[in-house]
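Dear colleague,

Following up on Tuesday's group meeting, I ran the structure prediction for the two-component complex that the binding team flagged. I've pasted the input sequences exactly as they went in, so you can double-check that nothing got truncated or mislabelled along the way. The structure tokens for the whole assembly follow below. Feel free to forward this to whoever is handling the docking comparison.

Inputs:
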Amino acid sequence: MSDAAAKTRMISFRDAYREGLREALLRDPRVFLMGEDVGRYGGTYAVSRGLLDEFGPERIRDAPLSESAFVGAGIGAAIGGLRPIVEIMTVNFSLLALDQILNSAATFSHMSGGQVCVPLVIRMATGAGRQLAAQHSHSLEGWYAHIPGIKVLAPGTLEDARGMLASALADPNPVLIFEHARLYPIEGELAADAGAVEIEHARLRRRGGDVSLVCYGGTLDKTLAAAETLAAQGIEADVLDLRVLRPLDEAAILETVSRTHRLVIVDEGWRSGSLAAEVAARVAEHAFYELDAPIRRVCSAEVPIPYPKHLEDAALPQPDAIVAAVREGMAAHA
Amino acid sequence: MSAEREHALALLGGMIRIRHFEEKCAELYGQSKIRGFLHLYVGQEAVAVGVMQALGSDDAIVATYREHGHALARGIDAGAVMAEMYGKREGTSHGRGGSMHIFDVSARFYGGNAIVGGGLPLAVGLALADKLQKRPRVTVCFFGEGAIAEGEFHESLNLAALWKLPVLFLCENNLYAMGTALARSESETNLCVKAASYELPAWSVDGMDVRAVEDAARRAVVAVRGDGPLFLEARTYRFRAHSMFDAQLYRAKSEVEEWKKRDPIPSFAAQLRAEGLLDDESLAGLEAAADAEVARAVEFAEAGTWEPVEQLTRHVYCERDEP
């Protein structure tokens, strides 16, 4: 390893995302960023702060509050030869652009017999945990992962926050990147020369062997925290970070379950019809006889996310609940 | 033949071939050769034929689910369009789209969008790409007056006007959004007034008069190329049902008959006769040419092949390495 590669620096998720954006804009003149308050305001979460000064208003393009039109314009611009990065302020507002995402971006390639590819990247903040109440706290990654024709990414590490964008831009398909809003200010170590990361595989973030914890995005740090608590109690957990929610890395899921024989899935989406349900179904279909205990899920409670902190905390997956689910599973069967 | 006569006959012939093509489609639907939804353009042919005269090969078209006429007027091969209706792999979209989703990138024809209003943002984006890459192209976006009730209409006109993008918003006002009359869905039925509120020029033209449409479209395209978006309303009428499942309970037969008196094909033919540009023989020639083209298209579609089921999931994701 060279000295440069060995070097790390402290950086926040917010700044890691900005580095990825800046690099993309520097590297390819076809790339531009478009969305609400990405320019003069500096980005709702300050991800794009400073980029307007550096790249100008043509490439850091403030859009009116017209989600459907600017997402659709991103689709058209991608077909027209540009490489747009559309920022939707939050997943909650992406519902206003669902027609364009589902009926246009996801269908054009197949519906046109392969003539029209849509090389579009859509970034959006997602998730709860900041007392923003029911209309600003959705976790709809699982919904979007339901849709054939798009790819869905959920960075849960600084390395992925920094490096997923470049790979998404190199992909000829529409790629959605869900940035968990709770993580933006969190800081950690990142390699000085961090760059593009692959966007095909799940990644084992911790190797244990007693139980598999499968999670993604905003539940990764909580799951790792739970795994440390479990380790202190003598239970060593695998922690698999899905990273790519569509297409799902089924092989990685089956691999960890085939070693540990126990599975707990952690998902900030609502339990019914969730991504966690999909993971559980895949394991039931393909690794049923590997299981020594029933699959357990730690998901959000089936309520619109409430405002007061104690209720919000109770509604979301928390390390304690993950620990409890694992312990139940360990006790259920020797 | 004088250039004037040649052009006039091309306009008339262009409308006749769409009419004959679609009458054949209705017949084939009855024979179950074409399935799904089939939305016929009969009565509105002057709009597509007139507008296409104003476009160059580099300009782009975004259309709706009632787009057979636009595809043919754009010069897309009738056989490929018919094969698409049949669902055959030789169709424009290899049969995956059907009647509502005709795509031909080589003709810069970007669908075939079956979500009312869904094509407008797409047209804005195509025009944005042209503007940022400094290409002097125009994108024409066809939609019906029903789309004016959609948010995407308002969002898209605003965005195009705000960013001065080269989009011609071409509204084919046939008075009915499926079965809902304009006056029953809009508080303001003057569509130009609505469009003009976004600070773009808004014109209206008689959509039953192919020459008037062509003239307006030519002026509009020049304006759009130089100065940004423009809204053009073509006042027209759909003679047939909304789709093959429509009992037409919402309008009087007498109203349809009134509009048929203004049928763009016989009225233009009569006009050309009066001008000495058309005789029985040349009209018969145009009809025969259209019939022959339609017959060839049907033959091509009949001879087409089915995509093997093994190919079902092809193209869900783009097969190109680099877009």
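The first strand of chain A starts at residue 8 and ends at 12.

Cheers,
M.
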